[in-house]
Design brief:
The chain contains 3 helices and 7 strands. The protein is of the alpha+beta class. The protein has one domain: Peptide Deformylase (Alpha-Beta Complex). The strands form 2 sheets. The chain has a 5-stranded antiparallel sheet with strand order 1-2-3-6-7. The protein has a two-stranded antiparallel sheet with strand order 4-5. Strand 6 and strand 7 form a beta hairpin. The site of zinc ion has 5 residues, from helix 2.
């Protein structure tokens, strides 16, 4: 596996739909470990496989922050099965360095996913975890957080987005 960092906005892989994982083998285990490493280095709370140029439906999450206990999860083929409420929060993405914007998302969600042990599990989430899971599942579908912004906000970010695109081609 290459030792690449996080793919930046402008790279077409971020717009591709990741494919369901049929078998949890050494490749998937290595990919998960690699993603945790990249995420930790970048101080992110979530990372989707697309962001390291792999098109597998795999997400890693780590919402532990300092003394705040969170969740450390590997999500294989995650799916949202329920959602309620809505909340607007400032959101960023490792594929968009130094850029953030208010994004409206469901406040609480229910989701299912398979763990590295091959077992399917169900999870109820709210707060930062609910937001991270929604953001990362979007990635697996080629959807980016800027897609949730209104036209005005997007116009305001246009210049920064163009700069990122140039950066991603380097
Ligand atoms: Zn992201």
């Amino acid at each position: 596996m290459t030792n690449k960092g996080v793919v930046i906005f402008g790279d077409p892989v971020l717009r591709k739909k990741a494919v369901a994982i049929a078998r949890i083998d050494d490749r998937i285990r290595a990919l998960s470990a690699h993603m945790f490493e990249v995420m930790k280095k970048a101080r992110g709370i979530g990372l989707a496989a697309n962001q390291v140029s792999a098109l597998d439906r795999l997400v890693v999450i780590d919402t532990n922050r300092g003394d705040t206990k969170g969740h450390c999860l590997t999500l294989i083929n995650p799916e949202i099965i329920g959602a309620s409420g809505s909340v607007k929060l400032d959101e960023g993405c490792l594929s968009f360095p130094e850029l953030s914007a208010d994004v409206e998302r469901s406040e609480r969600i229910g989701f299912t996913a398979t763990g590295l042990d091959g077992k399917r599990f169900e999870f109820e989430a709210e707060g930062i975890l609910a937001r991270a899971v929604q953001h990362e599942i979007d990635h697996l579908n080629g959807v980016l957080f800027i897609d949730h912004l209104g036209t005005t906000k997007k116009m305001l970010l246009k210049k920064q987005l163009e700069e990122l695109k140039k950066l991603s081609k380097k």
